[in-house]
Amino acid sequence: MAATFAGLFVGTFFLGFLADRFGRRFIFTWALLFYTAASVVMAFQTTSEGVLLWRFIAGVGIGVEIITIDAYITELVPSWMRGRAFAVNQAVMFTAVPVVAALAWWLVPLSPYGIDGWRWVVLIGAAGSIAIWILRLFVPESPLWLARNGRMEDADRILTTIETAAGAAPSRPASRAAPSRAVAKVGYAELFRPPYLSLVAMFMVFNFCQAFGVYGFANWVPALLVEKGITVTKSLQYSFIIAFAYPIAPLLAASFADKLERKWIICGAAVAIGAFGMAFSQFTEPALLIACGVLITASNMTLSYAYHALSDRGVSDRGAGAGGRARLLDEPGSRDVFRLHRRMDVARGRRRRRVRPDHRGDGDRHHRHCDLGSQRARQAARCRIKHGAKCTRRDCLVLLMSV
Length: 403
Description:
By secondary structure, the chain is mainly alpha-helical. It has helices at 2-14, 17-22, 24-43, 48-76, 82-93, 96-107, 117-129, 132-135, 143-148, 152-166, 197-227, 232-243, 245-253, 262-282, 286-311, 321-328, 334-347, 372-387, 394-402; strands spanning 353-354, 369-370.
């Protein structure tokens, strides 16, 4: 498990720039194939060192894939339903957990055709990833990524396809008069300068701490149950039951994902994780252990989707998206990008919604009748004009991250 997490760290922290440079669709496809190849090689290793090395390499692929998916969802899904989108994404992604748990429970004690059961589990998981070669044919590149890289014609073509599929009348292309130049790139150094430094530090600390609760418990459930005096076979059986909470919890959370502020969902889930974790440590009865395990897992998944939806509001794979958006209004090609934002809102079916005066959603509590996305864009534009390109006011930063 340590090798997997080390690979995840390398993939997310050091290789996140790949999707910004080469595109979401391209990197998602090849990262998954990279993971598949590493898993196949790992399944045929005969030494512990070889297994650890290739598990680390597979973890790198998973890390790149996860952050690429988050950026892709953020760019394609409007803010008013982004919470539900991340919840559904988590449900689909973690459907693999009970499947793998069932395979482990069934195959690990056996050696079908003279091959160790754990090797079969790894190979079956890798084989499922090959389906990406078919699915990728139906996944377009992110139009916003194309626009930011000066490929407005490609972005326009993809948006026209989306509008046609959604039944909306195709809008006028973002720019036909002259080719748009790419928006200026933003590097890692921008993350560690005001006004983004405090936010980046907070997200880094939170992400580091939440990994212990979310992924630590998930990977150590069988070992924790064995420590309670339960046999290995039974621990795998109980882990399989607990694993059903992984896809079910995000689906249930989707019902309130966009009705409550992300921060309160995160805080409530964190308190629940602590409470159910303490109870899990005290119980020895199998039924109570399973119940606490299910509740811990459900709380972990709720915290995970809410955190991803919160931290990815306007943030690119490198985490430099906040700075990038802050400069859009001052850089060549920015007008086309914002026009493209508006077309995507229409294509994705953005709706006008009435907001009560006491509504406490993310950042829109002061608006009664408004199209949230376009109003925030206008407010952000006024902010840049009034306060300048280097504005460090917290209110302006929040607006820019929520456009």
